[in-house]
Amino acid sequence: MKRWLIPILVLSLLFVSACGNPAQSSDHEEASGETITYQSEQGPVQVPANPQRVVVLSSFTGNVMALGVKPVGVDSWSKKNPRWQKRLKDVPEVSDENLEKIIELNPDLIIGLSNTKNVDKLKKIAPTVTFTYGKLDYLQQHIEIGKLLNKEKKAKAWVKDFKKRAKETGQEIKEKIGEDATVSVIEKYDKQLYVYGDNWGRGTEILYQAMGLNMPKRVEKVASESGYHAISPEVLPQFAGDYLVVSTFNDTDNSFMETDTYQNIPAVKKDRVFVVDGKAFFFNDPLTLEYQLKVFKQKFLGR
Question: Which residue numbers delimit the Fe/B12 periplasmic-binding domain (predicted)?
Fold first, then answer.
């Protein structure tokens, strides 16, 4: 599509939205045309009371799907998630730089992050709401997505139930590994090795916040504020806890795990290393958290 067509298409969509679209109504009979006012970070936004065509340009795809809404367009990381391939098989990948593709999807709501590009142009296509990553904790963020989709009650019910189940599992794990045992989460991404704090996906929220397991003091010192900290493989033993969760990617060189430095870490020698799929563990939405809870039950408790 030629770029000079974008303004024309945007105006066309706005005209159709204002006048009503009989064809769209027949395709989505549940859409009532009613709106609600969502109090976003940027101020009040009129959004559909029952959105049917949601485009997600960020890390909130799992939140949207957990609330019973299937997106019509998602970001690249969501498409890479191996656990979502079936759900998102027919859902196209979109980005904040491909306005033509977003226009073609005819969205009634767009969700992104505060650093999403072209927000002013996106707002001309459909109501657009952005969130600052980390401004809210991972559970409150889900409740906010629930408010945005007019499903706050459902979101709150899941949060309450999840917190209870995760806390109980954490207590069981502590009884098995000891109250003072520590857990480190590490990941080699591209060419850099990282350790993670308690709010950067990869299972960190459920391990440290929901389950209440202990982070090594050295990791807490360097990663609690930023959420992550880059290290060299040579100093990894200084950041390793009694247990290691290693997030891996099949397209990343993880040869550091074959070195003597790594192999001599006590957690490695005692077979206390849990290797997880980085693409499946990347987010902290309800679908991912449920999967992480299941994995950690199996890894720590053998069930």
Answer: 52-303
Pairwise CA distance, residues 229 & 156, whole Å:
32
Q: What is the pTM of this model?
A: 0.87
Domain finish residue from 84, 116, 150: 150
Count of domains observed in the chain: 2
Strands annotated E in the chain: 35-40, 43-48, 54-56, 109-113, 128-131, 183-189, 192-196, 228-231, 243-248, 273-277
The side-by-side arrangement of strands in the sheet containing 183-189 is: 228-231, 192-196, 183-189, 243-248, 273-277
Claim to verify: residue 22 and residue 122 sit in the same structural domain: yes
Is there a single domain that holds both residue 205 and residue 88? Answer: no
Which residues, other chains included, contact 199 with Cβ-Cβ below 8 Å and sequence gap of 6+?
Answer: 134, 137, 138, 205, 209, 227, 284
Contact 257, 171 (CB under 8 A): no
Mean pLDDT of the chain: 91
Last residue of a domain, one of 150, 176, 200: 150
123 with 193, same domain: the answer is no
| Full domain range(s) for residue 272 | 168-297
Is 60 in the same domain as 197?
no
pLDDT at 32: 54
> Which residues make Cβ contacts (< 8 Å) with residue 256, sequence separation at least 6?
188, 193, 233, 236, 262
**What is the torsional sign of CA 186, 189, 194, 198?**
negative
Q: Residue 16: is its pLDDT beyond 50?
A: no
Could you tell me if residue 160 is inside a domain?
no
What are the two backbone dihedrals, phi and then psi, of residue 212, each rounded to the nearest 5 degrees? 75, 25
Report the chain's C-alpha Rg in angstroms: 21
**271: closest CA among 252, 292, 295, 244?**
244
